[in-house]
From TrEMBL:
<protein>
    <submittedName>
        <fullName>Uncharacterized protein (DUF934 family)</fullName>
    </submittedName>
</protein>
<dbReference type="InterPro" id="IPR008318">
    <property type="entry name" value="UCP030820"/>
</dbReference>
<dbReference type="Pfam" id="PF06073">
    <property type="entry name" value="DUF934"/>
</dbReference>
């Protein structure tokens, strides 16, 4: 798997995945399942300097609320490119829970969805090595969004849409 950075200024790192049955040992960082976090949460936090959690796109954000201040990474698994629940979960993590850590998408997504991932609050995308060039090209293809997202309403650094840029150019005073 390769990681694509979606958000400028955000550092993204590969995280070691810790299985549910693997004994915890002190590490700098580790990625565990939500079930493991809920079962062994305090031990996980003590064992790792930075904690990441893998969740499904249909996870209720309330399950992450007790941990949101201690998580450094939330990896949202998309079972299929047609399943948009992961987009909603990322937005709710950012908007409703105020989560500031890294949000990563994983799964069989379409390259054309890469830019929208960033606009919904994702910082990185895990892609297979054979899909990486296509995903990178899709990210570079469109720099200006056509319309804003709900998350854009709370972002101070939100990008101007194509319509806003056109309107500003049309009515700019020379």
């Amino acid at each position: 798997m390769h990681l694509l950075k979606l958000t400028p200024g955000r550092r993204v790192h590969d995280w070691p995945e810790i299985d549910d049955d693997t004994a915890l040992s002190p590490q700098t960082h580790g990625l565990v399942s939500l079930d493991r976090l809920e079962r062994d949460g305090e031990a996980v936090v003590r064992a790792f300097g930075a904690v990441g959690v893998r969740v499904a796109g249909d996870t209720e954000p309330a399950r992450l609320a007790p941990w949101v201040d201690r998580l450094h990474l939330v990896e949202i698994a998309f079972p299929d490119f047609k399943d948009g629940r992961g987009f909603t979960l990322a937005m709710r993590l950012r908007k409703d829970l105020g989560y500031r850590g890294e949000v990563r998408a994983a799964g069989p997504l379409l390259p054309d969805q890469a830019r929208f991932l960033a606009r919904c609050g994702f910082d990185s995308l895990a892609v297979s090595s054979n899909r990486e060039p296509v995903a990178r090209a899709a990210l570079a293809r469109f720099e200006v969004p056509m319309q804003s997202t709900a998350l854009d309403q709370v972002r101070a650094d939100r990008p101007a849409t194509a319509l806003e840029r056109r309107h500003d150019a049309k009515f700019a005073v020379a």
